């Protein structure tokens, strides 16, 4: 099975490129952001808890996310693989994901790191907020999310380098050019 972690700061294009990967390779997509937004929209207990963390620009507790991901992962029948979009975000999450997959006879095939300069991320996210109305796409929250990303999430690069799974992808350029680089990295 082809199990991919797609990685990058908020606004790096993970969602856009994930859709293209799903279409080309016929794998399933787990976007923790989409899963959490659905929980919040449906006003579930998880959604209420998650909203509190998200509104503060913080990460959801690991145990909560692993339980959600295991449930979603197990729901896919006859899957060719999964792309994990927005998870893991910390080394303990990466370790927990590795354990969860190993319990199912699976492993991560590749970790794709979409690298985009911060000025471009700010521009993209503010524009996305204006177009979509997403409350978390405002300058103050974006800055908090980038600090969290740089301090807590960025160390994952070294984790996946150690696993021999890390692939750097330049996240600036045309969508087609970036996707071509992704396909090379997966291939």
Question: How would you portray this structure in words?
Answer:
The chain has 187 residues and is α/β, with parallel strands linked by helices. It is 58% helix and 14% strand. Strands 2-3-1-4-5 form a five-stranded parallel beta sheet, sandwiched between helices. Helix 1 packs across helix 9 (175-186) and helix 4 runs parallel beside helix 5 (91-102). The longest helix is centred in the last third of the chain and has 15 residues, at 118-132. The two termini are 13 Å apart. The relative contact order is 0.20. The mean pLDDT is 90.
Q: Give the DSSP E fraction (strand runs of 2 or more residues).
A: 5-15%
Structural class given helices, strands, pairing? alpha/beta
The tally of helices reads 9
Largest sheet, strands/sense/barrel: 5 strands, parallel
Which overall shape is indicated by the principal axes computed on the Cα atoms? Answer: globular
> What's the count of strands?
5
Using the CA coordinates, give the radius of gyration: 16 Å
Please report the distance between the alpha carbons of the first and last residues: 13 Å
What is the mean predicted local confidence, pLDDT? 90
Question: Could you state the oligomeric state of the chains shown?
Answer: single chain
Question: H/E order of the elements?
Answer: EHEHHHEHEHHHEH
Helix content: 55-70%
- Uncertain spans, ≥5 residues at pLDDT below 50? none
Adjacency order of strands in the biggest sheet? 2-3-1-4-5
């Amino acid at each position: 099975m082809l199990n991919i972690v797609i990685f990058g700061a908020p606004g790096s294009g993970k969602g856009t490129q994930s859709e293209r990967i799903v279409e080309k390779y016929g794998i399933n997509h787990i976007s923790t952001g989409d899963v959490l937004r659905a929980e919040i929209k449906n006003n579930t207990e998880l959604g209420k808890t998650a909203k509190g963390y998200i509104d503060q620009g913080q990460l959801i507790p690991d145990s909560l996310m692993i339980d959600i991901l295991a449930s979603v992962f197990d729901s896919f029948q006859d899957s060719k693989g999964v792309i994990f979009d927005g998870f893991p975000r910390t080394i303990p999450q990466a370790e927990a994901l590795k354990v969860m997959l190993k319990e199912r006879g699976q492993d991560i095939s590749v970790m794709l790191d979409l690298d985009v300069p911060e000025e471009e991320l700010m521009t993209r996210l503010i524009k996305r907020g204006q177009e979509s109305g997403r409350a978390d796409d405002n300058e103050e929250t974006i800055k908090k999310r980038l600090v969290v990303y740089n301090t807590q999430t960025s160390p994952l690069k070294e984790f996946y380098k150690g696993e021999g799974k890390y692939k750097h992808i330049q996240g600036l350029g045309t969508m087609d050019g970036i996707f071509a680089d992704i396909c090379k990295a997966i291939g």
